[in-house]
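Progress report, Aim 2. The chain analyzed during this reporting quarter is listed below.
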Amino acid sequence: MFLVVAPGVVAGLVPWWLTSWDAGAGSPAVRILGWILIAAGVLVLLHAFARFVVEGVGTPAPVAPTRNLVVGGLYRYVRNPMYLAVGTTIVGEALVLARSVLFVWAAVFAVAVVAFVRGYEERTLRRRFGEEYERYRRAVPGWWPRRTPWDGR
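Predicted C-alpha cells for the chain:
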C-alpha cells in the first residue's frame, strides 16, 4: 500500500494537480529522454521496495519499519535510491510534458526529502542500528552513487 500511496502522491497526484497532464510544446528527443527517466525511476523504486521487504523484512513506511538495515542491491551504491527514483520520475515527467512547474516541484521535493532524511531518518537509523548504520553511512554516499559497490567492510 505504501508503495502506491507515497510515491503515487508525490510523483503522480501532485504532478497531475500541477499540470492536468497537459503537455506543452517540447521536442521529441527531450520527451524520449523523459520517458527513459520515468522508466528508470519506476524500476529503481520497485527494486528499492523489494530490498526493504526481502532484505529488511519490513517496509519503508515508518509504521512498519524493517528489522534489518537494508544495505544490498542499489543500496550498496547510494543510501537513498528510493528518493532519487521518485525525483528522477518527476524530472522525467517535466521533460515529457515540457512543463517547468514540474522542475520546481522536483526541487521542492528534493529540499523536503533532504530535510526529512537529515532531521528524522538518519537519527532514527542511528538509534536503531548503531555502529552498523554509522559504518554504512561513512562508506556509502547519501545522494551521489559510488562508482563501485560497497562490500560491507
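The radius of gyration is 16 Å. The chain has a mean pLDDT of 94. These observations will guide the mutagenesis work planned for the next reporting period.
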